[in-house]
Records
---
Amino acid sequence: MIKPVIKWSGSKRSQSAKIKSFFPNTYGTYYEPFLGGGAMLYAITPEKSVCGDICKPLIDLWIEIRNNPEKLADSYRHRWNRLQKEGYTAYYSIRDEFNKNRSPYDLLFLSRTCVNGLIRFNDKGEFNNSLHYSRPGIKPDTLQEIIIDWSNHVQNTEFMATDYFTTTSTAKKGDVVYLDPPYFHTKGRYFGAIDYNRFLEYLEDLNSRGVKYLLSFDGVRGNEDFTVEIPSNLYKRHKLLPSGTSTFKKVIDKQTEEVFESLYLNY
Ligand SMILES: C[S@@+](CC[C@H](N)C(=O)[O-])C[C@H]1O[C@@H](n2cnc3c(N)ncnc32)[C@H](O)[C@@H]1O
């Protein structure tokens, strides 16, 4: 499986190869407006792409991965050495610094040393996950290789810290958009819940512009079921992909239940 450069909850890493098999053979520009950790972007590595996310510190980090991979790897090495020497105070001082200045360099370090590598922000947009005491964090040499590999994959990508509407506003007939939105209508830790009706209008708009889309949609995340329907006039095909990633809904009457995720395609 792909080694992530940015660990992001809801990553499509385990499904990216399967989803890729449904991509059209040829297309113009690739768009990914809910980028997160970019698993599909890596799997596809398109010739030309525009990718965005509403989370600005995340996009700033992507830009550094593309533009300054060596500097980013060095900055991790520096912070990681500090952590080994100074212990937890280094982590919390870097976290305070990040919450003031939003440096992508600090964010990368925090994401690789925090509990379960989970990037998590509170309502004020402050990073609030704690240090993972029992683990030293990925070794700088190992992370450097991963950063450089990803950097090579994203050289032709334009990154935007924008709402999904804006990221794909230039998409035209022949282009393809991969969509992996967060929960609809729910509040909570997940960054930026989105409005369901607005999203349906958006799909309609992509259809009317002749833009192809693939939409991942599981409806089940965390331990709640958020299943909502995508109206059948908005897509042409609906696939159910086996998903090994959900850690809940597993045991019912001591039988393991397989979990599926939806993939909707408008072509
Ligand atoms: C399920 S995650 C995407 C995960 C990604 N496919 C991966 O493999 O890591 C959804 C992403 O949508 C972003 N997001 C939430 N609301 C958004 C909005 N209105 N516009 C653009 N991005 C948004 C979140 O910050 C989050 O990164």
Note: Confidence is low (pLDDT under 50) at residues 186-190, 248-254.
---
Amino acid sequence: MSAPRPHMVELRDVHLSFDEKKVLDGVSLEVEPLDRLVVMGQSGSGKSTILRLILGILRLQSGSVFFKQFEISRLNRRKLQQVRSQIGMVYQYSALLSSRNVRDNVALPLEELTTKSREEIDKIVDEKLALVGMLDAKDQAPSELSGGMKKRVSLARALVMEPELILFDEPSAGLDPVIATVIDELIISLTESSKVTSIIVTHEMDSAFRIGTKMAMLYQGKIIEQGEAEAFKNSTNPVVAQFLSGSTEGPILEGSKDAIATK
Ligand SMILES: Nc1ncnc2c1ncn2[C@@H]1O[C@H](COP(=O)(O)OP(=O)(O)OP(=O)(O)O)[C@@H](O)[C@H]1O
Ligand SMILES: [Mg+2]
């Protein structure tokens, strides 16, 4: 009998604290190939922390994080860098280098992680910039771009290594609603056409349900609910229901209401 296929990503009972503060308290999560998993949760709940664990930037205290067959938390530096090149990351604030123009920002992973020639790199960069509709801005500096344009460039940069997995941290934060929808649709079309699995962190509900094929809710250090988007929408979990409705009535603010009231 052949071994079962590994998940694209798996977190198993992950615990992580910063100093005294417990952020992840037994997080378990599975992501299958071609899923677009939306992770939602309150500000400060640990969403970006989960993405950083998958990238191997942070170390956990106990539990395991797998990307395919690789246990990220156990790889040595060299192997981690190799594995990480198969994961694209789109950061919340785009994280483009201000000293490099658009072309050179997108080329960066190829220059650092491959031995490809200048011609090969140029070809890939042009192709990815065309995919996100930014080829004309190739020579511009990041400071000359709008927030939505920066996101597109950041997306092109995440694509150049032909990753199997892309992590998006708040892809539509800070964008106007129309551009946010454009970015959402770009994420859907690119992940579908390139057959990429993705994890998207967001607290914009419209965006979450537009993009996500699956949903997971992080609350008090645990994934309290996960499932298909449709089932998630009808969740009877009071925390999920409150989060989706944005209501102030429910368990989420309990205990902090008094604190807010006395401010
Ligand atoms: N390097 C660090 N050192 C100390 N504390 C940290 C560090 N990184 C994150 N934290 C803390 O861990 C908690 C979770 O942070 P994280 O950035 O994962 O939240 P988040 O869910 O992404 O929030 P947001 O929606 O505001 O981006 C926060 O309380 C934060 O202050
Ligand atoms: Mg965050």
Note: The pocket of adenosine-5'-triphosphate (ligand 1) is lined by residues 18, 23, 41, 43-49 (CB under 6 Å).
